[in-house]
Amino acid sequence: MYIDKVQINVSLCKDLGKIFEILRRDYCDAPICYFPPSLLRALTRWIVKSDRIFLVTAEVAGEYAGFFFGHAIGPKSIWKRFAFANAGHLFELLWVWMHIHIFPWLRIHILRKPKRVLNQENLTKLNNLGLPTLNRPFEWSTDDPQIGCIEQSFVVPEYRYVGLPQCLSTCFYQEMS
After folding, report:
1. Per the confidence metrics, is the pTM higher than 0.85?
2. Per-residue model confidence as pLDDT tens digits over 101-154
């Protein structure tokens, strides 16, 4: 595929080493950013074996340029299924869970003092605007395995603005269907 005379190759990646390196280096969101190397290797094997988990990579002129990582398992089910499939990594999974759920709570409630509102007048003005609010937690969609989810996308900074996200999403959707 060519965009603005730049050759872009986009494909589904099932190479263990390449997936491990991409997730280790470029995936910056929870829970993967907290995975120790052994758990990351288990995730890599799980991705390679699955036909419902997708890591689509892009190369520009033969150099790695970015990825889309997603699945068709259900928005809330992927990490539960991963944990059950890799129960042998129980202590590492518990450590990741603590990083996500316990440590932030400790930082907020114990280590930091509550912040005061510096300008009460601005807060009152904001409250008087009558903006709509939800009386329940926000959800994107129900937990349905028929729903495809893109967990994270990443484009190397020097290859941004050449149309990579469109190419990656097109390949990603083709792999899912």
Report:
1. no
2. 898 887 777 766 666 667 778 878 878 888 877 777 666 667 777 778 899 999
Domains of the chain: 2-116+144-176 (3.40.630)
- C-alpha 52/C-alpha 145 separation (Å) is 9
Backbone angles phi, psi at 52, to 5 degrees: -120, 5
Q: What is the DSSP string of the chain?
A: -EETTEEEEEEE---HHHHHHHHHHH--STTGGG--HHHHHHHHHHHHH-SSEEEEEEEETTEEEEEEEEESS-TTTHHHHHHHHTGGGHHHHHHHHIIIIIHHHHIIIIISPPPPPS-HHHHHHHHHT-----SS---SS---TTS-EEEEEEE-GGGTTSSHHHHHHHHHHHHH-
Which tokens in the block code for residue 159?
A: 């290859």
Q: Residue with structure tokens 């991963």?
A: 82
